[in-house]
Amino acid sequence: MRNIVLLAPNGQVGFELARSLVGLGKLHCLSRADIDFSNINMLLARIAQLQPDIIVNAAAWTAVDKAETEQDGAYLLNATLPAALATLAQQSNAWLVHYSSDYVYPGTGSNAWQEHDTTAPLSVYGQTKLAGDSAIQQHCAKYLIFRTSWVYAARGNNFMRTMLKLAQSREALQVVSDQIGAPTPARLIANITALSLQQALQRGEALSGVYHLAPAGETSWYGFAEAIFTLARQHGVMLTLAPEKLSAIGTADYPTAAKRPANSRLCLTKIQQTFNLQMPDWQSQLALTFIEWRNNTQVDNTVICP
Ligand SMILES: NC(=O)c1ccc[n+]([C@@H]2O[C@H](COP(=O)([O-])OP(=O)(O)OC[C@H]3O[C@@H](n4cnc5c(N)ncnc54)[C@H](OP(=O)(O)O)[C@@H]3O)[C@@H](O)[C@H]2O)c1
To answer: What is the C-alpha separation between 216 and 281, in angstroms, rounded?
Structure first.
């Protein structure tokens, strides 16, 4: 049976992966409770002991604004760690699965980014993610890098949960409407990872590459918030926010430490054609994730790995 090592099973994506990957082999999860991943040598030794056939790295420094001032920590997790994992994967003849971001692109124009487009991150976080992608491509032969955008889930810290919380306590809200992308549920990322990995295991390293992974369609953060509140009202969630009190603002009116790309559209042609998939639209994915939140199915936060 294949050994799968999953790093960070308690993050948004890691949590869903712990469920999606079980059918592919014996799952070994390593979290911060086992090892602080910034101790890279200790982590590598632990992974090597498990004789991995697949390493799935859901760990990352995801505090985008904090990365502007804590660059060393962000680089360690997002660039040095993936580089070390890639070297280990190569030595072990293992597949490495890794996640990257729309923030590697400059955010200009209005076309959807393709995987071969020129990267030019606007933030330190984006630079660290790009450095991680490049290191993996350089150091190992069997890898899947999924660049995704605007990740959310029924659990964890994310935009959907923040908006629902704010709309239950505030009477007015302003949300940015000039950044365009696709909100991606962690569960979709995990399910597509499992499907793609299954094919990669059968078809071999010709499938190695960078792939965009997001639902079909596009919206703004404002459009995303509006859709969340519409669902909330349809499902009888009591909101203090009246529909007419949600207003659209520009990025310039909401300054942040890290600059965000205005255009986060990701072209999905490569992943769909390579793995014979059809991505669902972001609205249906939101409805599913919202219902999961509403039904409180996230109550079971127990990781199912040994
Ligand atoms: N979130 C987004 O909007 C977004 C957008 C595009 C791409 N991505 C990428 O998607 C991937 C998954 O993101 P996510 O949203 O699932 O992130 P997340 O919820 O923040 O999870 C990150 C995980 O990394 C773990 N971690 C961080 N530093 C660690 C350390 N020193 N030692 C051990 N564990 C450590 C965290 O552990 P703790 O729980 O213990 O802190 C957490 O489980 C990442 O590669 C991210 O860059 C995310």
So the answer is: 4
The residues that are catalytic are 125
Q: Is residue 306 part of a domain?
A: no
3-state secondary structure of 23: helix
Per the structure block, which two tokens stand in for 51?
């004789």
160 lines ligand 1 (CB under 6 A): no
List the domain range (segments joined by +) for residue 265.
3-299
Is residue 304 situated within a structural domain? Answer: no
What is the distance in A from the centroid of ligand 1 to the CA of 250? 27
Q: 173-210 pLDDT, tens per residue? A: 999 999 999 999 999 999 999 999 999 999 999 999 99
Specify the number of domains making up the chain.
Answer: 1
- CATH number for position 162: 3.40.50.720
Residue 105, in any domain of the structure: yes
pLDDT digits (tens, 9 = 90+) for 238-252: 999 999 999 999 999
* Burial of residue 174, with CB atoms counted within 10 A of its CB: 0-12 exposed, 13-18 middle, 19 or more buried: middle
Span 208-236, pLDDT tens digits = 999 999 999 999 999 999 999 999 999 99
Angstrom CA distances, 264 to 65, 91, 125, 127, stand at 17, 35, 15, 15
Which one-letter amino acid corresponds to residue 178? D
Q: Would residue 305 count as lying in a domain?
A: no
